[in-house]
Amino acid sequence: MSAGRRVGIVGVGCSKFGIRDDVTLQELAFEAVSEALSDASLTKDDIEMSVVGIAGTRSYELMPAVPINEYCGFAGRGPVRVEAACATGSAAVYTAYSSIASGMVDVAIAVGVEKMSEVDTPTSLAVGGRSGSYLWEFHQYGTTFPGYYAMHASAHMAEYGTTEEQMALVAVKNHRNAVHNKKAMFRKEISLEKALGLRYVAYPLRLFDCSAITDGSSAAILASEEKIRELGIDNAVWIEGVGFSSDTANMTRRESYTTLKATVKAGEMAYRMAGIDEPVKQLDVAAVHDCFTIAEIMAYEDLRFCRKGEGGKFVESGDSDFGGKLPVNTFGGLKAKGHPLGATGVAMFYEIVKQLRGEAGRLQADLKNHRGLTHNIGGTGHFGWVFVLGV
Amino acid sequence: MGDERFTIESRQFVLRHRIPATKTERYWKGLEEGKIYATVCRNCGAAFSPPQTDCSSCYTSDMEWVEIEGDGVVEALTQIHSIPQGFEFKGEPYTIAVARFGAFRVMGWFEGDETLSVGEKVRAITGRDETGVWKVYFERVGD
């Protein structure tokens, strides 16, 4: 596999995440795009192609890419609309990346946006539950997105002795980090005791094991190496590794419920491209997909931050916290920052780019290798994306 | 955000799909006869649960319908407390499990009194829920 031209990230933007009933999809996307353009010191006219990532269905605009594109002033350039469930943002970045790497364009923007709060919670749960293999799962059994991850949690607990307490510790850590993230939905600490006392959403996952229904947007502007030199940009963050994979839609066709094969495969591919053998020693910081706390624990294992089955211990011993082996989800994770599906993957780029530029303030990880990772899953390992970024 | 927001309610939009089930009719009719069917490819032996009539492995379409029988082992489960639109009729949390029966895994509901555990042995039966949808139900072996 040839990676084509070298591609760098030259600007990132992110809206405030939360229940954003003050703005439409278009207005929300504009916030992130506007911030990304000023971050890159570019204007909208410098953008040759726009990619709009939105999972959709929960918002009133059913074909949202063109309305969003028009509102951001990109009419006539793109849009390519992509959807990969909760990994939509990574698919958007990849589309922009590959358009540049192939030589088709020199500058492209990936816009990730989602409004999940325009419908009520039971409707939102049904959209997630209908996103597996509808006729064989939701139609008969009323699956939900928390339910799918809960099934994995039940298997992980049975196989490796992972506990509810270990899962809750992921949420405690991520909330502690989000306090210092101005873009985060929940900027307050939670106690382990409180987390363990809350009701189940889908046994064995309690309320604080789950990311919330969130509205938000994010944007990343990518450019070719030649263009970056021509523009005199000196703080570009380079895409050094790309990995993608997927798994079956049907839960009954999975090989295992204690691992996400899409993570393992995407991770291997990105590590190979970036020349990473020992992730914990070669990365400074990682953003992993913690839509549910068990997902972060499985990600530690599947991305080889620790051995299989030791993900619970990894969080328990502080290995994924500041000063640990590898700080994970320094920005608060999806759990505390929020998880607006289409925005999440691009927002991970926003957070890791800030880290690698040394602009993360009180959430700054120590930079030794000047490399970071984003790991973005769609569904329950239905899609897997891993990127290695470096400066 | 907190303040009073000015919002507009959209026009109602009802979506209901007509789902083609001709190729898997045997499965759906089987549920009504108390049988749970899967398919096996006659050419390469690939097993499919839920059933399909084209082989994703060898790209032939010569399938044998096989009945899933005997005891299964629970591999994963959850109890849904936050109920999605469409399942309000349950009025209470419901348990979904995935159990393995040899080469096949099956999803089903468990409606026993106590909680089910991963690793337990179950039997699969069929039944109809309050809305008339046929499906698989698990029963503990020995109950």
From TrEMBL, chain A:
It holds the Pfam family Thiolase_C_1. Keywords: Isoprene biosynthesis. Gene3D superfamilies: 3.40.47.10. InterPro entries: Thiolase, Thiolase-like, Thiolase_C_2, Thiolase_N. Signal peptide: none annotated. Residues 245-390 form the Thiolase C-terminal domain. Residues 17-190 form the Thiolase N-terminal domain. This is Thiolase domain-containing protein. It comes from Geoglobus acetivorans.
Automatic annotation (TrEMBL), chain B:
Residues 28-64 form the ChsH2 rubredoxin-like zinc ribbon domain. Signal peptide: none annotated. SUPFAM superfamilies: Nucleic acid-binding proteins (SSF50249). InterPro entries: ChsH2_C, ChsH2_Znr, NA-bd_OB-fold, Thioester_dehydratase-like. Residues 65-124 form the ChsH2 C-terminal OB-fold domain. Pfam families: OB_ChsH2_C, zf-ChsH2. PANTHER family: BLR3430 PROTEIN. This is Zn-ribbon domain-containing OB-fold protein. It comes from Geoglobus acetivorans.
